[in-house]
Amino acid sequence: MSSKKMNGAESLVRTLVGSGVEVCFSNPGTSEMHFVAALDKVDGMRAVLGLFEGAVTGAADGYGRMAEKPAATLLHLGPGMANGLANLHNARRASTPLVNIVGDHATYHAQYDAPLSSDIKGFAGPVSGWIHSSTSPKTVAADGARAVQAAMEAPGQIATLILPADTAWLEAEGPADALPRRVASEVSDAAVKRAVEALKKAGKNAAILLRGEVLKERGLVAAGRIAAATGARLMCDTFAPRIQRGAGRVAVERIPYFAEQIVEFMEPVQELVLVGAKPPVSFFAYPGKPSWCTPEGTGISYLAHPHEDGVQALEAVAEALGAPKEPAYVAPAQKPELTDGQLDQFTIGHVVGHFLPENAIISDEAATSGIGSMIATASAAPHDHLSLTGGSIGQGLPVATGAAVACPDRKVVCLHGDGGAMYTLQTLWTQAREKLDVTTVIFANRSYAILNVELSRVGAENPGPKALSMLDLHNPELNWVHLAQGMGVEASRAETLEEFTEQFSSAMKQKGPRLIEVMI
After folding, report:
1. How far apart are CA 153 and CA 243, in angstroms?
2. Which domains does the chain have, with CATH numbers?
3. What digits encode the pLDDT tens for the residues 378-395?
4. How many Å apart are CA 13 and CA 405, to the nearest integer?
5. How far apart are the two ends of the chain, measured CA to CA in Å?
6. What is the pLDDT of residues 271-312, one digit of tens each?
7. What's the pTM?
8. Strand 383-386 versus strand 243-245 pairing type
9. Which of 14, 48, 29, 229 minimizes the C-alpha distance to 142?
10. Bridge partners for 74 per DSSP
């Protein structure tokens, strides 16, 4: 191949870079080697290695949520993609823009049913909004441009491009031009009118349920103005993909987790206006408890569907109502005070809220230990909060990693339960390798604590020692200090509130990866 010629892999990498994709989170194998080699020939693509595909896909999720554009993942065949499916499920629920590049056997090799042959489209289908398998090196670049365009389609989705090995190594015609971005659709005047009527009708018994772009500052201000005019409550899902919170920002009520709590929370609502959201349902079905949690008889109106411009819609409603310029429900600038007492999630939350720097990012998979920090950070320094959107645990560490790659000038704090963190602990190695500014707080209760709660809620009576042992992380006990140090991350253990205060305040002043194991 002459210096003027390029193969399909290089044409694809150049197309991705030209389309605005700047990072590739990767765990490659033999079929992807030409893509790997092309990374050295093309400027503008950062390659980040993950030691497990779930770390790769979760990091791409965190990056997409914060960068608001896709990263690429590079995954090895169907089994490699299957290893990353749990965090692709979370990314799908978050509507994260993301481009998967999945290697495949050469087109002529498929007939032999080699050991790693699999149904890649079957694996990719449930998590992908767009799937395509390249058939020629001369179309790979155009396929890549279409994948990026598809990923950026509002509100964001996963695009999976399958790359047979021969389409990567054979000669291509060159990169393809970036395709135009598809902007969010405008809402109709009728939708705005329905929302205005519902809000006027119900007043303080109305609620606006927000999700997506509207949970950033401009959307929150518009929602707060509507609340100032009508008294309506502002809500978000239990696990919103990204929300801007803290001092000076419009505060939004978070829907509770358990079904009966949601029913009580929603009971006063007579009119529910949805902006990029769906009506709340319980996370699981429980004997004798409702799955649908909106009161019977409540009016439900869609101001904006997820693919529509919810921010513009809220601003139109605010103007139609003649709403004041100053929003309601603005969180005070009231940094939590440090307190004495036992080391628990609430005193820990006070420390986190007290020392959290301005413009930080919180990746939250603290599970049963997370309420304390959510309460305490409500009026802390302004920050972004990223949740476990799809409920598939093992997201927190990778999402924090991707967020740190997207926003290298911002401190990232990862709050994580010890059980869930074990799913993707390999991500710590990537944080050390990339020198990412992430402080991880591991809540070490040596248990799948949420499952102990759920055991009784689902009606499983009189659990015995075998059942209880399935939810217990003793024997042997995990040692997160040793685990983190073994992957190159500075780590310490806090057994008292004083120790945690000193360790966390120190971590907020330094750069680079750090882990604190909190014994609760």
Report:
1. 20
2. 6-172 (3.40.50.970), 189-320 (3.40.50.1220), 345-519 (3.40.50.970)
3. 999 999 999 999 999 999
4. 19
5. 61
6. 999 999 999 999 888 888 899 999 999 999 999 999 999 999
7. 0.95
8. antiparallel
9. 14
10. 26, 101
